[in-house]
Design a protein that fits this description.
Layout (H helix, E strand, L loop, with lengths): L1 H6 L3 H16 L11 H8 L5 H19 L2 H14 L3 H4 L3 H15 L3 H14 L7 H12 L4 H21 L5 H8 L7 H11 L5 E5 L2 E5 L3 H24 L5 H15 L8 H11 L3 H22 L6 H4 L1 H23 L10
Antiparallel strand pairs: 1-2
């Protein structure tokens, strides 16, 4: 996989390179990523190597680091999920940096070093916002371990995250446009909201698809309802997994996995690399291996394979989101199975990760 990634061009890596050069020459921050994402983009630019080579090797080292941080029983499963679910995309994006932070937060939580866990989540949030969703799960483990919640750690972690996110605004107030763009963009073709629109399109609701806002998107009259549906599904999953963990019916990896999956499904965007956020905890959970492989294969079948083959040809609306819709439905089925297994379990106490 490393050899293939080194030998091919990548729009994302080229974009990262341009962002790094823009910062080094005129102090410009990335227009579509949190400002601290510049760190993994800048590092390869400072080495005396071709940028792509340095970036890909950096990401391969991070993938290995994440695997090493997992227990031996989970490493091969994690590697398999990454290989079939994201492949070379894992080495073309910087997402493994925040993934590393969430895994370090999981390890710190298992050792009851909650301050360190909050700090790792704060750093991960500065790189990509999604680790913010895990703060309530760490707070829950702290409460289960101590018998009560110590608000100082949670509030300190949230303050650190807020401070890191706000600090770049002093450098460039236009950084707020990154978040305005995320709120205002159309549903990406791989999102659950896009899947809802595709199902509505099968019943005759008009649908428009195309490439804008930097991705393949779908929109139409059903978009507001589909977005609300995706949000409700994601929030319900997040809350239910948190509740099952509070009741002691599931272990920490499954709780964090379900919470993050609910977050991803609620997003307007569900790019292939977002599976990297889930894979460490899916590997730790150890259940439904074949279903996770199927989810990964359906993701990879859409991007990069299907898009690479057909992006320049006539684009059929139903085809655009068909594979992601199948992936999303399968992911919902998988999460339902994990929930049902937790519901059947009687409360076993407040065991944190080991």
């Amino acid at each position: 996989m490393l050899a293939v990634a080194l030998s091919r061009s990548s729009h994302s890596v080229e974009l990262y390179h341009r962002y790094a050069q823009a910062f080094l020459t005129r102090g410009a921050l990335p227009p579509q990523y949190p400002a601290w994402s510049l760190l993994p983009m800048l590092f390869p630019a400072l080495l005396h190597l071709p940028y792509r080579t340095a970036f890909v090797v950096q990401m391969a080292a991070l993938a290995a680091a994440v695997a090493i941080l997992l227990p031996p029983s989970s490493r091969s499963r994690f590697s398999l999920y990454v290989l079939v679910g994201t492949g070379i995309i894992a080495l073309d994006r910087y997402d493994l940096w925040p993934v590393l932070c969430t895994v370090l937060a999981w390890r710190a939580t298992g050792r009851r070093r909650f301050t360190a866990a909050y700090l790792w989540l704060a750093i991960g949030t500065a790189l990509k916002l999604y680790p913010l969703a895990l703060f309530p799960f760490v707070a829950l483990e702290e409460r289960l371990a101590a018998g009560r919640l110590k608000p100082s750690g949670l509030l300190g972690g949230l303050a650190a995250a807020a401070g890191l996110l706000a600090l770049p605004l002093l450098w460039s107030p236009r950084e707020i446009s990154v978040y305005a763009f995320a709120l205002g963009r159309s549903p990406e073709a791989e999102s659950l909201a896009a899947s809802g629109q595709l199902l509505a399109h099968a019943w005759g609701v008009p649908l428009r698809a195309g490439f804008w806002d930097g991705s393949w998107n779908v929109t139409g009259p059903a978009a507001p309802i589909a977005l609300l549906f995706a949000l409700l599904v994601g929030v319900a999953l997040y809350a239910r997994f948190w509740q099952l963990r509070r009741q002691g019916r599931i272990e920490v990896p499954r709780a964090w996995l379900g919470g993050l999956a609910g977050l991803v499904l609620a997003f307007k965007v569900f790019s292939v690399q977002y599976l990297l956020w889930l894979f460490p905890f899916a590997a730790l959970d150890g259940a439904a291996t074949l279903l996770w492989i199927a989810v990964g294969l359906l993701s990879a079948a859409f991007y990069p394979l299907w898009i690479s083959l057909y992006a320049s040809r006539h684009l059929y609306l139903a085809q655009l989101a068909l594979l992601p819709t199948a992936r999303n439905l399968l992911l919902l089925l998988l999460l339902w199975r994990l929930l049902r297994a937790g519901i059947r379990n009687s409360p076993t106490g407040s065991q944190a990760v080991g």
